[in-house]
Amino acid sequence: MDEIDWETRWRQVVEDRATLASGHVDTGYWDRRAASYARSTHARVDEFLQVLDPYLSPHKTVIDVGAGTGRHTVPLAQRVEWVTAVEPSEGMRSHIAGRDNITVVASTWEDAEVARADLVVCSHVLYGVAAPVPFIAKLERSATERVFVMLRESDLPHPAAEIRRRLVGDAGPRLPRFSELFMLLLQMGIAADVDFLRYPIVTRYSDMEEAVADSRALFGPGWDEDAGQAALREILRPDAGQLVFDGGVAVSGVAHWQPRTSS
Ligand SMILES: C[S@@+](CC[C@H](N)C(=O)[O-])C[C@H]1O[C@@H](n2cnc3c(N)ncnc32)[C@H](O)[C@@H]1O
Question: Ligand 1 pocket test: which of 74, 89, 125 has the largest number of ligand atoms within 8 Å of its C-beta?
Fold first, then answer.
């Protein structure tokens, strides 16, 4: 059987997905989604921080790559000396709570100029990165002790995917998966340790307008306003003045390893 080139395959998956929606690489998308993302993930119990726990101590430094709304940055800053949060979307950055031991860098990871840190973490960022090898190589170069990369293994739990299933018959081109990251890392010569996490995904919208805008952005070409809204009315449930999409239980993997460039 032919060997798979995981780098080529990854790029293909990202490019196929981009024909549907550019969401995951589009800072405008994250600007618009920031409030809903902050609301939805604020109370999300994922155990990413527990995976990091053995490596945390008050004199450590951390870089949080693609920090989003800071849901990991802020609790990490309570445990370590300093966190540098790299985040290109202004909307997402605006949710990162200020602390005197957090530096926020307004940049993509590819363009960021940051000093090395003990730990480098990157959670749910790589889905839209078409060239993952230089991205991961930079994660590794920037860490002196350990790199942590989290991605979902299960499919995207988003209303847009459910609406496509109902209206088009499929969820559209998928995102890269954790298992593909793992194989890509092996191809790069990195035999990472792995922890799998399972947690419920709930997406919270303030109103129908916000839900429609978010689904339209990820649905891709052919969005039908009336049919889309009708489907949304079926799949969202009201809760405490918000509209909630129950995305079920997600399975994510965390790959973590000691950088080969650590000395
Ligand atoms: C799904 S959110 C994850 C945020 C956060 N890490 C978390 O787990 O809650 C993805 C974030 O990655 C950011 N992002 C996308 N491409 C990026 C890149 N090339 N460099 C740095 N951040 C990026 C987006 O702006 C967005 O805030």
Answer: 125
